[in-house]
TrEMBL record:
It is a multi-pass membrane protein. The chain crosses the membrane at residues 27-48, 87-113, 125-147, 159-177, 198-220, 255-277. It is found in: Cell membrane. It comes from Rhizobium esperanzae. Its main location: membrane. Keywords: Cell membrane, Membrane, Sugar transport, Transmembrane, Transmembrane helix, Transport. Belongs to the binding-protein-dependent transport system permease family. One of its GO terms (cellular component) is plasma membrane. This is Multiple sugar transport system permease protein. Residues 88-277 form the ABC transmembrane type-1 domain. It comes from the Bacteria. PANTHER family: ABC TRANSPORTER PERMEASE PROTEIN MG189-RELATED, ABC TRANSPORTER PERMEASE PROTEIN MG189-RELATED-RELATED. CDD domains: TM_PBP2 (cd06261).
Length: 294
């Protein structure tokens, strides 16, 4: 005996209601995420919007969301008004130098804490990680005194070496390495590989997602760093981009449109690096969550 239409009706109404509620929930979720995304993107939009205005329009009241007249020449003026190429080169040297050293030191120390066993290991790790709680401002004066005694003021190594060690990088890579099976290390040891070779040929390739994430965080942090370059340099020849942009502030006033244009240009390397590393970072998130497959 088959079911009559009336007997199937309550189930069909319940299914339709459940489907409707699910669609409403999906719409609300996407609408909320879109609103949050707009809130995060608005400062960048406002920066670009002010970069193509006249300085008078930037300070005009009431505020206009879009410029009355687009002045794309502000980007050219920002590049030629100051030695922008020098600032860009200095920022690249400092950011890339710090990133390279942080990755090497973090890989070595993270492997030691994750794989080696030695007396006082846990206490040393805790002490190492406790440095994360020390504000950078408290370290500025001691670092400056050391750099000054060494004669490293206004030099690349004076800007790079004091900030080229990261407890966060060690912790991040250690946690990732702990998730790599030790059987791979033991197999490599049976083939006669040393600890250093195991790190380079086995651990590092598998830890590339975490290394890519660390590289991105470190590069962006140093690219936008202002306090330490301000302390460790004097003059324009070693100034980085954040310091160079302050030269648009003079006694005659502040060229906010040029500052915004320069800040927009300075974002390009970080955006490019994020795009290049996004596949590596996504693979790390996918593998760690168990949804990435191979």
């Amino acid at each position: 005996m088959t079911n009559s239409p009336t007997s199937r009706h309550p189930h069909s109404v319940s299914a339709n209601r459940h489907r409707l509620l699910r669609r409403i929930g999906t719409f609300v979720s996407y609408a909320g995420l879109s609103l949050v995304a707009l809130l995060f993107l608005f400062p960048f939009f406002w920066m670009v919007s002010n970069a193509v205005r006249s300085n008078a329009e930037v300070m005009a009241v009431p505020v206009r969301i879009f410029p009355e007249e687009y002045q794309w020449g502000n980007f050219v003026e920002a590049l030629v008004s100051l030695p922008f190429g020098v600032f860009l080169l200095n920022s690249l040297v400092v950011a890339c130098g710090v990133t390279a050293i942080v990755i090497v030191v973090s890989c070595l120390s993270a492997y030691a804490f994750a794989r080696l066993r030695f007396p006082g290991q846990e206490g040393l790790l805790l002490t190492y990680l406790s440095t994360l709680m020390i504000p950078q401002v408290m370290l500025v004066i001691p670092l400056f005194l050391v750099v000054s005694k060494l004669g490293w003021i206004n030099t690349y190594h004076g800007m790079i070496l004091p900030v080229a060690f990261s407890s966060f990088g060690t912790f991040l890579l250690r946690q990732f390495i702990l998730g790599i099976p030790k059987d791979l290390d033991e197999a490599a040891m049976m083939d006669g590989a040393s600890r250093l070779r195991i790190l380079v040929t086995v651990i590092v390739p598998l830890a590339m997602p975490a290394i890519g994430l660390l590289a991105l965080f470190t590069f962006i942090a140093q690219w936008k760093s202002f306090l330490w370059p301000l302390i460790a340099t004097s003059g324009v020849e070693k100034a980085t981009l954040p310091l160079g942009l302050t030269l648009f502030q003079t006694q005659q006033g502040t060229a906010w449109n040029y500052i915004m244009a320069g800040a927009t240009i300075s974002m390009v390397p970080g955006v490019i690096l994020a795009i290049v590393l996004q596949r590596v970072i996504y693979r790390g998130i996918a593998v760690s969550s168990g949804f990435g497959g191979r």
